[in-house]
Amino acid sequence: MEREQFQSYLQNTALLNAGSLEGVKKLTTDFPWFTIGWLLYLKNMKNLNHSDYETVLKKVAVMVPDRKVLFRFLNDELNKKVPIITSNNKTTAYNLEGDVELEAENSLIDKFLSSDGSRLRSGKVSLGVNGNNGDKAVAEQSVKEDEGLVTETLASIYLQQKNYDKALDAYQKLSLKYPEKSVYFAGRIKEIELLKTNI
Predict the structure, then answer these.
(1) 4: number of Cβ within 10 Å
(2) 98-137 pLDDT, tens per residue?
(3) Residue 63, domain extent
(4) Which of 32, 45, 125, 130 has its Cβ near the most Cβ atoms within 10 Å?
């Protein structure tokens, strides 16, 4: 298949008919991983109400990363354009998603690249006494334990590390959180208190 013919099929899928089916199919056999070739072959089969359309659709659906694009392509809802390199090595920008979305995406990327990197920080940072952006306060807050994340495993780890005060506190919180296991936790608390007195 010639490049010009391929481009014309991409730009106007209504040209895909019984005469083009063999050429597009050959494109898929010569270049089996060329997704756009498969899209054209599938669209050609749909235009002809081909009996193997459903079988090929299942194969192509796996190859296309976005099924919405596949649906819109098959139902003529896309601006059917893809990147094609012309004979003078100049790339003509065609896009399956549509030019408007591409321009919006590019403007967002350009805006991000031209922005000041310092604005990427999120959250409130209080100023310290010396105006050092509260680095010490932020560091202290980052290592502060969350009271709601106490688990039996964490309590067991504290106990294995011989951090008895934290283990005792964790088992007391667990006893309140899970009253159905309070007898078990009470036993663990007594065990920790005995270990603390033997130190």
Answers:
(1) 10
(2) 444 444 445 666 676 677 655 555 555 555 455 555 677 7
(3) 3-99
(4) 45
